[in-house]
# Entry
Amino acid sequence: MTLSIGQLAKASDVKIPTIRFYEQIGLLPEPIRTSNDRRVYGQEAVRRLAFIRHARQLGFSVEAIRNLLDLSDHPERPCGEANLLAARQLGDVEAKIVQLETLRGELRRLVQATCDGRAADCRVIEALAG
Amino acid sequence: MTLSIGQLAKASDVKIPTIRFYEQIGLLPEPIRTSNDRRVYGQEAVRRLAFIRHARQLGFSVEAIRNLLDLSDHPERPCGEANLLAARQLGDVEAKIVQLETLRGELRRLVQATCDGRAADCRVIEALAG
DNA sequence: CTGCATCCTCTAGCCACTAGAGGATCAAGC
DNA sequence: GCTTGATCCTCTAGTGGCTAGAGGATGCAG
# Structure
């Protein structure tokens, strides 16, 4: 059972231009074409796109995904790099959370200080200025 | 006491190209120039850049900062919009934190499942694929 | 056969910068 | 006065990960 790009988009929940974009940057192999140049995909494309989509949702960069896919394509290789990439991604996310929590604290103070006067006395403006 | 762009960059901890960029997009007014076309700034520029920098660190978009600066430039206006912008920014940050915490959970599971074999049996790859 | 959906390629835009080319000018030391 | 290195100028292009739109070909249903 083959799929058009539109059907693949629905099956994988990835938009058509994004699929073409992934092909362009080499995450997806170039599919075969019909005589009229339309892309034709098989089930493997659905799996590969699901892989990419899941990894992107976890915040992996395209570069990281390229490595992960490469490993997935070569099952005989050691998988230490996959572990490393996952650990690094976790570290990045944890760092981002800490940073955002700090931000949240500052913003909460900012929001609590909101006033109903004119900009001249506005505490939000004041806090940003000073 | 006037400042060159380099001195302003040091005083405000904003890089030179970024200062020029802020001028280009209208966050900073065009400064006067020397006879040799070099930008000359006063203390007001330091304050304005500090404002921008602080707001950027809090994650405000350039558009939001434009509005905040506009308010700051017109102290007679009501400041409800500043409050609104701050509240919205807080909401955005809180949403982002929730999202990242979910991500962190998934990534922790991924990282705990790391294996020392080959990619064929790698749980990280497997988890991403399935 | 008409009309709409789907597909194609190609280019440009988004955000907030950042990097680099290629050149002019300045300040300090000899 | 001359050299050297820092600083400045403008302009263009690149980053990441898409997204939007132009302009056109094809497919399919009524």
